[in-house]
């Protein structure tokens, strides 16, 4: 009898595997190409600004892609001292840090209460917070300014020079107030995703609600907290319109100070100092983003709940 060998059931067909493999390789190639193009689109302008910040004034009249003949670090010194970017930088740091402290101090307890407790008017509060997500703060900066002007007029006897306007602390409060809806919305959603069994176990051990929130829920919500810190930091640091309106005096933020430097350099044409000011503005954002992104990924990897 003739034996006919049947093909192995476990061996994949070579002809059917090749098209899928080719499509996968083509998809990876397209992905790598797009990611590389996006990275270059971000890295090349940053590198160009960094290079231009080290050039002398005369070098800007040649090719813009040439490397500096000598590293002129004095451009940064001039930007910090002569252009007052040093004081503007400190004002931005103060306003940003205070804004983050204020928004987290209000949003974390509020989000925890909304996520875990039932109280009269809870639906209305959530609806109001959700509606606040669609309010662009740039559209209400003029009413905020007029409100602060009226408050200063009411307190003119106690504060002749004014209190609410040209006050970095008040500016940080405005930043925090305008970012509360987004912060509470994101933290509430994350708190609700955490199983309640963790809180029940802590309550059986005698932990108070405040201790449960601070020592159990808050560490478990680290990915969400890191996310809101990142987004709010970028919003506060890069803000221009609100700080320009509410800080009309000398205590400006670095974004407004950079505009003043740009306006002044139109006549002097000292572009090296101008680009040095841009680097001073960019570097803190890049550093904070890199640090927060690393912690965010670590928190998301370790923050899962095992069943």
3D structure, described in words:
- By secondary structure, the chain is mainly alpha-helical.
- It has two domains: 21-61; 74-302, MetI-like fold (Orthogonal Bundle).
- The chain is built from twelve helices and no strands.
- It has helices at 14-52, 74-81, 85-116, 122-132, 141-154, 168-193, 197-204, 209-220, 222-238, 241-246, 254-268, 271-302.
- Helix 2 crosses helix 12, helix 3 (85-116) runs antiparallel to helix 11 (254-268) and helix 11 packs antiparallel against helix 12 (271-302).
- The longest helix is centred in the first third of the chain and has 39 residues, at 14-52.
- It is flat.
- 23% of the residues are buried.
- Mean pLDDT is 85; it is low at 13-17 and 302-307.
Core attributes:
72% helix; disordered C terminus; MetI-like fold; mainly alpha; MetI-like; 2 domains; single chain; 0% strand; 307 residues
- Helix share bin: over 70%
- Count the strands? 0
CATH topology of the largest domain, by name, is MetI-like fold
Strand/helix succession: HHHHHHHHHHHH
Class derived from helix and strand content: mainly alpha
Supply the CATH class of the largest domain: Mainly Alpha
Approximate shape: flat
The CATH superfamily of the largest domain bears the name MetI-like
CA(first)-CA(last) distance: 58 Å
Main location: membrane
GO biological process, one term: transmembrane transport
Pfam families: BPD_transp_1
Protein name: Carbohydrate ABC transporter membrane protein 2, CUT1 family
């Amino acid at each position: 009898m003739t034996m006919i060998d049947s093909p192995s059931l476990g061996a994949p067909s070579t002809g059917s595997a090749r098209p899928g493999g080719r499509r996968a390789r083509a998809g990876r190639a397209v992905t790598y190409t797009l990611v590389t193009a996006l990275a270059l689109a971000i890295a090349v302008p940053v590198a160009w600004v960094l290079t231009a910040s080290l050039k002398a004034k005369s070098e800007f009249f040649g090719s813009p892609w040439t490397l500096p003949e000598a590293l002129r670090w004095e451009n940064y010194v001039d930007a910090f001292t002569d252009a007052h970017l040093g004081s503007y930088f400190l004002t931005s740091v103060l306003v940003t840090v205070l804004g983050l402290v204020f928004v987290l101090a209000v949003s974390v307890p509020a989000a925890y209460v909304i996520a875990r407790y039932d109280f009269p008017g809870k639906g209305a509060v959530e609806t109001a917070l959700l509606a606040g997500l669609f309010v662009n703060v740039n559209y209400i900066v003029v009413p905020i300014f007029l409100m602060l002007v009226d408050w200063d007029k009411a307190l003119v006897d106690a504060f002749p020079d004014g209190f609410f306007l040209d006050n970095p602390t008040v500016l940080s409060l405005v930043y925090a107030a305008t970012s509360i809806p987004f912060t509470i919305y994101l933290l509430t959603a994350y708190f609700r995703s955490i199983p309640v069994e963790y809180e029940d176990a802590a309550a059986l051990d005698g932990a108070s609600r405040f201790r449960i929130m601070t020592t159990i829920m808050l560490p478990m919500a680290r990915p969400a907290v890191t996310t809101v810190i990142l987004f709010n930091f970028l919003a506060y640091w890069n803000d221009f319109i609100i700080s320009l309106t509410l800080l009309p005096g000398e205590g400006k933020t670095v974004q407004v100070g950079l505009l003043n430097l740009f306006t002044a350099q139109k006549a002097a044409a000292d572009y090296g100092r101008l680009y040095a000011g841009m680097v001073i503005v960019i570097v803190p954002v890049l550093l904070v983003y890199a640090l927060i992104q690393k912690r965010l990924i670590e928190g998301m990897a370790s923050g899962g709940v095992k069943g």
